[in-house]
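User: Hi! I have a protein structure encoded as tokens and I'd like to know what sequence might fold into it. I'm fairly new to this, so please keep things simple.
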């Protein structure tokens, strides 16, 4: 019995062929799509990587710019501080110059009224002393009033080593104590510009101090002693608060007999030394 075959495309075997071809085409297309997506992802990744690198670079540059701006700001702040310091310094200098030109300055001139006399009794509780009377002319040569003016002076023997160490220490003691005077103590007096104040004081050491300072061994000076006059004037400017330290004028004179070359300070501590004169010590005068 003969079998009649139908059209070839109706053959089941060809159906499998067409399905296979169709699947192949779908596979190829799918691979193509996946490849395109992979390439796109690569492109996007490259773009993102580039953007990240650019962002990092921009961040570094921004950090550098901020650092530079901070450095410039610090320099400007320091310059401003220096400018303020310079202005403050100029203001202080101007204030000091004004004070120096307008504040009071007290000048002291000393002279002997009565000469140094030894072994005078009764002045210090009956203890014999050496005394002399000094006249002090104090003049305010500044431009404004000096207030709370106080002064002190004394005649002190020179040390046996020929130094004025003891006398200078006594002067420093009084001056330092009155640099910041007790507000409850003596207030002193007022001294107007160019109106001299003249006063006298009797000063001198006990004879026991004179004996201690008398030289006992050196040939030519044995039994002799020398003296210096030391003193201090303290005062304030009327515009200054009382809390500020006082201004001071300090002085030191040798008592000596003038000679052709210098002077002779040593005398025998007896009677009255009529030939002694006040001779300014080279380093004896200071004013502040």
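Assistant: Happy to help. Inverse folding works backwards from shape to sequence: for each of the 288 positions I chose a residue that suits the local structure. Here it is:
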């Amino acid at each position: 019995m003969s079998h009649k075959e139908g059209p070839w495309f109706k053959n089941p075997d060809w159906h499998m062929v067409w399905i296979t071809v169709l699947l192949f085409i779908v596979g190829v297309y799918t691979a193509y799509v996946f490849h395109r997506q992979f390439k796109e992802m690569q492109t996007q990744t490259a773009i993102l990587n580039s953007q990240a690198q650019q962002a990092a670079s921009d961040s570094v540059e921004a950090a550098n710019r901020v650092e530079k701006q901070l450095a410039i700001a610090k320099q400007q702040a320091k310059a401003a501080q220096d400018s303020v310091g310079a202005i403050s310094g100029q203001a202080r200098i101007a204030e000091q110059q004004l004070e120096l030109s307008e504040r009071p300055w007290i000048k002291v001139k000393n002279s002997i009224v009565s000469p140094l006399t030894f072994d005078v009794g009764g002045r210090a509780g009956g203890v014999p002393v050496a005394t002399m009377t000094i006249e002090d002319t104090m003049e305010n040569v500044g431009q404004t009033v000096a207030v709370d003016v106080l002064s002190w002076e004394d005649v002190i023997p020179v040390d046996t080593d020929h130094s004025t160490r003891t006398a200078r220490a006594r002067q420093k003691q009084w001056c330092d104590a009155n640099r910041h005077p007790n507000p409850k103590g003596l207030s002193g007096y007022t001294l107007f510009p160019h109106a001299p104040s003249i006063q006298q004081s009797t000063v001198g050491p006990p004879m026991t101090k004179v004996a201690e300072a008398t030289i006992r061994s050196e040939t030519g000076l044995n039994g002799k002693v020398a003296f210096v006059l030391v003193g201090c004037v303290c005062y304030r400017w009327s515009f200054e608060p009382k809390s500020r330290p006082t201004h001071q004028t300090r002085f030191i004179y040798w008592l000596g007999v003038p000679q052709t070359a210098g002077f002779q300070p040593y005398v025998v501590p007896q009677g009255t030394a009529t030939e002694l004169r006040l001779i300014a010590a080279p380093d004896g005068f200071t004013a502040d």
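A useful reference point when you look it over: The first strand starts at residue 106 and ends at 124. Feel free to ask if any position seems puzzling.
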